[in-house]
Specification:
six-stranded parallel β-sheet; 11 helices; 271 residues; Leucine-rich repeat, LRR (right-handed beta-alpha superhelix); 49% helix; alpha/beta; elongated
Length: 271
C-alpha cells in the first residue's frame, strides 16, 4: 500500500510575498488545512503590514509560527503583538533576526501580559539591548505590587539569549533565572507560579523588602502557606550555600534574614 504523506510543516524561504491576494489565498489555505502545525517564513519580504496581518489571520490554530529575517518595522511588530494579544492556541513563536529594537520589546511585552498559551517566544539575533530584555522580563515578573505579580505572564519563556550556551546562561541574573525557571516548569499550575513569584519578591536579592502591607488583610489561615513557601526559598538558598562554600555563609545568612524580616514586618490581623 502506498504511504500517504501528510503535510504538517510548511517552510517558505526566499519566496517573495508582495501581493495581498496571494497572502489572502495562503492564509485561507492554512486556515482550512486539517493537519498543518508549523508555518515558517524566512526572508519573504513581509514588510507590507497588510500582507503580514492577512497571513497571521490564517495562523490562529497553528502550534508554531516562525517569522525570521524580515524587516518587520514598527507596524509589523505591532501586527505580531496583536496576534499574541489575541491569545490564540499558538504555543511557540519565533521572531529571530527581525531587527527588533528596545521600543519593539515594549510592544511585545505588553501583548504577553494578555497571553496564556505561548510557552516560547524566540527573539535571538535582534537589535534590542539590556533594556529590551528588562522589558520582557517585567512582563513575566513585575514585583511593583501584589496585583502586578498576578497580572504578569506566567507561561512564556522568552529566548532572548542562547539557552544552550552554559557560559551565557551563567551570566544571567539570579532573578531572571528564577523567573524563567518558574514560567517554564509545566508541573506548576498558574496559581502555584503566582505564589512562587510572590515569595521571590519577598526574598529578592537586592536587600530591599517587598511591601508587606499587601499581606495585612490576608486571611490568617492562608498566611501559613505564604510562610511555608518562604521557608522553601530559604531551604533552597541554604542548599545553594552548601554547594558553593566560598559564598555559603552569606547565602545562608541572606536567606534567614529574608525570613526574619518577613515575619517581623507582617502586621498580624486582629484575632
Amino acid at each position: 500500500m502506498e504511504r500517504v504523506k501528510i503535510l504538517v510543516q510548511l517552510f517558505l524561504g526566499g519566496d517573495l510575498i508582495d501581493d495581498v491576494a496571494v497572502a489572502s489565498s495562503l492564509s485561507d489555505a492554512i486556515k482550512d488545512h486539517p493537519n498543518i502545525q508549523l508555518l515558517a517564513f524566512d526572508n519573504c519580504s513581509l514588510s507590507n503590514n497588510t500582507i503580514l496581518e492577512k497571513i497571521l489571520e490564517g495562523c490562529a490554530s497553528l502550534r508554531m509560527v516562525s517569522i525570521c529575517n524580515e524587516q518587520l518595522g514598527r507596524e509589523g511588530v505591532a501586527a505580531v503583538a496583536d496576534f499574541i494579544r489575541c491569545n490564540h492556541s499558538t504555543e511557540i513563536m519565533s521572531l529571530r533576526k527581525n531587527n527588533i529594537s528596545d521600543n519593539d520589546t515594549l510592544v511585545l511585552a505588553s501583548a504577553l501580559k494578555e497571553n496564556t498559551n505561548i510557552t516560547k517566544l524566540i527573539l535571538t539575533g535582534n537589535d534590542y539591548t539590556e533594556e529590551g530584555e528588562k522589558a520582557l522580563l517585567k512582563a513575566l515578573y513585575d514585583p511593583t505590587s501584589m496585583d502586578s505579580i498576578v497580572e504578569c505572564n506566567h507561561t512564556c519563556f522568552p529566548h532572548t539569549f542562547d539557552i544552550k550556551n552554559s557560559s551565557i546562561v551563567a551570566q544571567r541574573s539570579f532573578i531572571e533565572k528564577e523567573v524563567l525557571n518558574i514560567n517554564s516548569d509545566k508541573n506548576f499550575s498558574i496559581q502555584q507560579k503566582i505564589r512562587k513569584k510572590v515569595v521571590l519578591a519577598l526574598c529578592r536579592q537586592d536587600g530591599g523588602l517587598f511591601d508587606l502591607s499587601h499581606l495585612n488583610d490576608l486571611p490568617l489561615q492562608l498566611m501559613s502557606r505564604v510562610l511555608e513557601l518562604i521557608q522553601e526559598h530559604t531551604d533552597a538558598r541554604t542548599e545553594e550555600a552548601s554547594r558553593r562554600p566560598e559564598r555559603g555563609l552569606n547565602l545562608e545568612k541572606d536567606a534567614l534574614t529574608r525570613l526574619f524580616h518577613t515575619l517581623r514586618g507582617w502586621e498580624l490581623p486582629l484575632l
